[in-house]
Amino acid sequence: MYSTRVLIPLGLALASGSALAHPGHETASFFSGFSHPLGGPDHLLAMLAVGLYAARQAGRQRWALPAAFVLAMLAGAGLGALGLALPAVETGIAASVLVLGLLIAFAARLPMAAAVVLVAAFALFHGHAHHAEMGDGTLAAYAVGFALATALLHGAGYLIGRWLPATPWAQRTQRAAGALIAGAGAVFLGA
């Protein structure tokens, strides 16, 4: 019963990215910004992974990781808006999926400062990519859209992670989800 409630939403989330998030947008708007993280499996999995990883952390780290991601992602978009390039943006995004998946798969607990820095560094790449795909329009409405979608994806991952009971079966399920996410990250790195 629990496997159905976990595997069906996970399968739907993985299948929802059939249209990649990087074809470019005609006009930047709140809705195009909102759809960008939802439209590509690389962004979708990384953002769900942040929530899943945060759900199994202690205390303030549960909220600090998603907050750091959103803030750093906005900073990455700001860097793009200023014309400052980040090297290997797509590789950084793919690496975020791989590393975050591995952290979940191995139930790793990093010190708070290290986890926040790691998550924020990955978020810079995601934000820079969001800006690069913005198209014509203003950054403000577009950024509010992708920041809100990202926060919702973090929240979904967090709720799934907290919903799972602290049983051996649930821990194996979460580790398996982390391994699947890491496998997708490895595929993205190879593509």
From TrEMBL:
The chain crosses the membrane at residues 67-86, 92-125, 137-160. The keyword Signal applies. It comes from the Bacteria. The keyword Membrane applies. Residues 1-21 form the signal peptide. InterPro entries: HupE_UreJ (IPR007038). Keywords: Membrane, Signal, Transmembrane, Transmembrane helix. This is HupE/UreJ family protein. It comes from Pseudothauera nasutitermitis.
